[in-house]
Amino acid sequence: MDKHIKWIVNQWKREKGIVVLMLVFTLASSAVSIAYPIMFGRLLDLLKNILGEPARYPNPMQEINRIIWVFVALGFAQFITGFYPAIRGWMNIRFENFLRKYYFKFVLNKDINFFLKFRTGDIVTRLTDDLTDYSKISWFLCSGIFRAVNSFSLIVFALVVMFSINVKLTLLSIASLPIMMVVFYFASDKLYRNFELNQQAISNINNQLEMSFSGIRIIKSFVSEEKYNRFFEKALAQRFKTEMGVVKLNALLQLIYGYIDYIAQIGVILFGGYMAVKGTISVGTFYMFYSYLGMMIYPLLDLPQLFVSGKQAFVNIDRLEEIKNYPSFYDNWQGEIKPKEIEEIQFDEVKCTYPDKSEPVLRNCNLEFKKGEKLLILGSTGSGKSTIANLILGLLLPDRGEILINNSPLPKIDLNALRELIGYVPQEPILFTGTIKENILFPVDEISEEEYEIAVRTAQLDQELASFPDKDNTLVGQRGLGVSGGQKQRVTIARALIKRPQLLVLDDITASLDAENEEKLWKDLNTNYPGISAIVISHRLSTLHYVDEVLFIDEQGCTHQGKHEDLVFKNQEYHDFLHEHLKE
Q1: CA atoms of 91 and 17, how far apart (whole Å)
Q2: Residues facing 365 on adjacent strands
Q3: Above 60 in pLDDT, residue 42?
Q4: Quick check: helix, strand or coil at residue 235?
């Protein structure tokens, strides 16, 4: 079975009850539509016979009334089956909602390699535009396919009636179908390529929009509005080009299909009219044929359109499956151990290289960390300090060496259970669109007001909030737009503390704190969260006063760990590093 058909069948299996109901409604609607020309044809023949041979019909109104009652019944049936387009629309939305949630879960569970491969705008496009618009996945899954079922059943029912009346005239009516199939066969690959290029162009547009809005401060500070506008216009021009390619090819196919069917229609009118004049068929029969021919014009055009929209939907399906099936090291993660506490963390000769880099960012890294300790990681820019934080959180895996949590290899640890025990403050503070309070409460579902206030005070955020007119209900924009860098950093500290973690991982947070606030932070941290473990990445040497040990990273790796006083006298590289920073 074709992979796209299999995918569609799997979606239908979840909604098989509604799918069966829609199939019944579709077939019933087609049957009702087919019945109208039959009854009108009989009515025409009856009226002709009554006028031509009145003696045969002593009570003509009785015959006419019988046909009228059939029309009433058909009208009622048409009213009932008329609800199915609304059901189709409802199912379109239902499929869209499910698929967006389904694929979004896969995106959230991908590792860092995935987000290096796929840009934000591209992912957004795949989860929105690829699913939503006309002829895309959700529309095709229901409306697209069932429109085709409706068209196909209408043609089949009409052909059954037509073949039962006159074979020659029927064959003339369907003579255009094989030609349409041949035309589509030669155009199908071109359609797929055009749709694929168009979707990629849409992704590029969304990438440009995402970058422009998130980086609006940089664009304005460098007076680069015109330059960035040119980038956007170039992306728009490419999208216009690909969309016009789709429109032109689709229009050409519709024109070809229309002319093919138009020629067939002329043939039926001429040949059928000649037969009616000669008396080979009745006027009512000719009316039926003409009605069915008119009835089949749009279905005959709709069926090729199914293949066109199907090609586009198949492109969208492939794009969604691509992000779902993109390999992740989490795929083979064992994770059967759920730690209750973080007793110990060890790095044994760990080497790590980022997926988009050729040189390792961290090499020969050895680390020992025990519960309750506070460890400062020092090293030059680019030495791999933040990489250690990413490795502890399981955001990266080492190329070589081993990471142990409580003496168990990291791949055997349940990452969700581990991360629940860690409060992480990244080097670049990330806030979500919403209020400051919503950002702080992001990791928890429920928390007491007292616990909330403790986290805010410890992060030295209470005085900052007091200066805002709306206090902690102040709205922030995307990535924290509307608050200063220091305020964003303190919000992220409060967010990390709100769940009372066992281990606090702070990545260069003191860059946004002055010496006085740093001292208050550590004092309140030890008072309000006694016994908390901390791994701190910092360039500020004053942080040495608040930690138990130092891990120093140099060109040889992170092989130097111990108390500050010991390292100063025993390690020349560490001594030189401090000397250089003190001069600065």
Answers
A1: 12
A2: 350
A3: yes
A4: helix
